[in-house]
Amino acid sequence: MSRLNQRAFEILKAEILRCSADDPVGKVQRDIALRRLERFQAKPGAPLTLEDLRDAIVDLFPDFSEKVLKAAVRANCPSPTANRFRLASAVLVGIVGLAGGVWILNLPYPPIRWTVARVAPLVLMPSFISMDKNYRQAIATTEQADQLVNRATSAADLELGTTKVQTAQKSLDALPVWFLGYYPQTYCGLFQCSWRFTLDEFQGARKEVARMDAKLFQEKNAQTQLNQADQLLGSAKQQYQEAPNTAEQQAAIAQWQQAIDQLHQIPDQTLAARMARPKLMAYERDFQQVSGLALGSTQTSNLIEAAKIFAKTAQELDLKVPHAEIEWEENQKQWATAIDRLKTIDFKDPDYRQAQTLLANYEKRFSYVQIRLKTEQASAQAFKEAQQLRNYLLDSTANNAKALNPDQARQLHRIADKLREVKAGTTVYVDARGMLKAAEARLK
């Protein structure tokens, strides 16, 4: 260690340059002072004290700053903390270098590992610790994954099984395949390591983990399929319950059937299939019931449409003009047929209310037609009887008779009474009114 370090030299040099005059004498004084300081730098020994620096400079520069001298002394005498820091840095560098060397020797390359294992096996201690840890973890997590995946009872088991399979795979990947047959006697004698992992066992474990990973992939797809089918079926149920008409009910039933078909397509060996079986039985039972109701609803719709067709045909008859008895009878049959179609609809049917509304209207029309038919029949019968009485009266009356005898007058009154029974709106009403006027005129 030099008596004057570089930092202290620079502090003193700066002050010397400031104090020296810019003339030949000042230049000589400056060179002498700097050469003295350079000799102190080159000479090993104890650091210069304040007195040493003062003796070396003040004779040349009497006005040299005392403050600068003290600063140079402080810079020239490093603190114990700095020494400890340098020592710690050196130790740290050594440790890092040693660790780096051990790390290099523990690299997973056969030429390095085998050479070190024969010469200095304890250097491979980190590798042995890692192998033992990964072996134990691979065995434990593989067994746990087997229980969770192959004997799963819920989706949570599969999720945890996925984590265990990933951990087992990671642990197996960390085991150096070429080193499996090597048994570190020194390490295992100290720490009682437990592995006896042959290459065949290692490959078997990897195949088992890969098989479980593939099974988990299949289980995940099956769970997704199950969830989609459940959502589709729930949507179909809600759509069916809220359907305002038969057409939308049919669409909901088709969606319901699609969901059931998806459940049937789930692979039988999966957990999702086992979870779907009881649901599937209930879904199919409900579907059969709903399908039966839908079939009945379709039949009801057909009955309503048929009733409307007959009613439409019946409504084509103009009610404002008289019609013959046969026309009223035919119209009455059409209304009766429409009514019969509606009466077969059960009160449990969703369209029952609509059917009852139509039924009330059709029965009202039927009653009106029935009244018109009876009126037509009664009027026609009365007119017929009046005609018969008239013919009988004409046969019993002389052609040149100017007056009626009492018996003939009574017969004419009977004819008039019969004619008055003929109602307006019938086919014989006009003729009956003409005969009635003639009879009344004759009676006068």
Describe this structure in words.
With 444 residues, the protein is an all-alpha fold. It has 16 helices and no strands. The chain has helices at 6-19, 24-42, 50-57, 66-76, 80-105, 110-119, 125-150, 155-174, 185-191, 199-242, 246-264, 271-315, 325-343, 352-396, 406-420, 429-443. Helix 1 (6-19) packs antiparallel against helix 4 (66-76). The model has no long low-confidence stretch (mean pLDDT 78).
Briefly say what this structure is.
The chain has 444 residues and is mainly α. It has helices spanning 6-19, 24-42, 50-57, 66-76, 80-105, 110-119, 125-150, 155-174, 185-191, 199-242, 246-264, 271-315, 325-343, 352-396, 406-420, 429-443.
Distance between the termini: 171 Å
DSSP, total strands? 0
The largest sheet, given as strand count, sense and whether it forms a barrel, is: none
Which parts are unreliable, with pLDDT below 50 for 5 consecutive residues or more? Answer: none
Helix content: over 70%
Strand content: under 5%
Order of helices and strands: HHHHHHHHHHHHHHHH
The average pLDDT value, as a whole number, equals 78
Shape: elongated
Rg, alpha carbons? 61 Å
Structural class: mainly alpha
The number of helical runs is 16
